[in-house]
Amino acid sequence: MTTRLSLFDSPLFLGFDHFEQTFDRLKKSAGEGYPPYNIEQIGKEGLRITLAVAGFSMDDMEVEIDNNQLTIRGRQPEDTEEDRIYIHRGIAARQFQRSFVLADGIEVVDASLDNGLLHIDMQRIIPESTARQIKIKGKKPVTGSVKKLEAIEGQSTNSKKED
């Protein structure tokens, strides 16, 4: 049995194992080529993903977010017209799944379909600073215990002298 080591196994990266899972998801989705898409910046903190989904209706698609992963799925109903004979069929009518890993602080605010283009609008949420000062506490001396300790130490040195 071989054990897979990664950068995130280092003790310097405690609690970053979710990044490794994110990289694994990115590797899986890298080979996807359909449908084509654009990513653009809209304003200072806005982003938009646009997918070319010609032939798909709103009912044929699903947009989902799970664990910072945005997934868009499309499935067209089966052709019920068996009497159609295509001379050339160049319009893609296949199902698809396209995934995007979202950074922390990115929130999907809207999805709309317009002229065969699915637009997914996102907003970067800048959190308030979580920096805070931690008070350092010292160990308080216990005066009664110190006197008892000195008395015990004095007794042990006196008993050694008697020996």
In short:
This protein has 163 residues and is α+β, with helices and mostly antiparallel strands. The protein has helices at 17-29, 143-162, and strands at 37-42, 46-52, 61-66, 69-74, 96-101, 106-114, 117-124.
For the largest beta-sheet, the strand count, sense and barrel status come to:
4 strands, antiparallel
Strands ordered across the widest β-sheet:
1-2-7-6
CATH topology of one domain: Immunoglobulin-like
Helix content: 10-25%
Q: Rough shape?
A: elongated
In quaternary terms, these chains amount to single chain
Strand content: 25-35%
> Segments where pLDDT lies below 50 for 5+ residues?
none
CATH C-level class of one domain: Mainly Beta
Q: Helices and strands: which structural class? A: alpha+beta
Number of discrete helical segments = 2
Q: Averaged pLDDT, please?
A: 78
How far is the first residue's CA from the last residue's CA?
Answer: 65 Å
Q: What is the element string, with H for helices and E for strands?
A: HEEEEEEEH
Say how many strands there are. 7
What Rg, in angstroms, do the CA atoms define?
Answer: 32 Å
Would you write up a description of this structure?
The structure is a single chain. The chain has 2 helices and 7 strands. With 163 residues, the protein is an alpha+beta fold. The chain has a 4-stranded antiparallel sheet, with no helix packed on it. Strands 3-4-5 form a 3-stranded antiparallel sheet. A hairpin with a 2-residue loop joins strand 3 and strand 4. The radius of gyration is 32 Å and the shape is elongated.
